[in-house]
Amino acid sequence: MINSELQENTGISDRRLEEKLESHKEEAKKKISATRPIEDFKEMINYKYEDLTVEAMNQLKEIIIKFILESFKGSYYIKSIECIKELRDACVEEDEVDLFNEFLEILRQDFPKEKFMDFWRLLIDNRITLISSTENVKSSKTDIECKEWIDSLNKKEIITSTLKDLDDLIADID
User: Computed from CA positions of residues 164, 169, 171, 172, in that sequence, does the dihedral angle turn out positive or negative?
Assistant: First the structure.
């Protein structure tokens, strides 16, 4: 409809009009970089000529895992948490709740609390949890299940770890 109106007003042929529209089409961001992951992610999600949403989400998940694995004494944990927040918001908005909830479960399985305690503390402090059906109707998780999930991270493992840290500190003092 718009094309035919534009053609009538300008006298441009179909082929020429498509060429003109193509020439103004910006290039899509195809890869999320570790240096500016959130900006690249948003650029891919918001690209209007092609749906890159799931690809962008999968790439951001890879970046998050990379940040956790390559972190030296937690140096990239804050960056990974920022990316997780961004991924969570996008998954709520784009109805990809299962993608996010499964990802958090994979993180929980692959990155044990004992070894990655500082990462999990940041996740708890930022109240990042599974996406509930209250936030997005496509979720199969209730608010109670989401609260229980984060509470389970915040139980005795953290207390035990803190006590071990205190014991190590006391031993160093002696």
Answer: positive
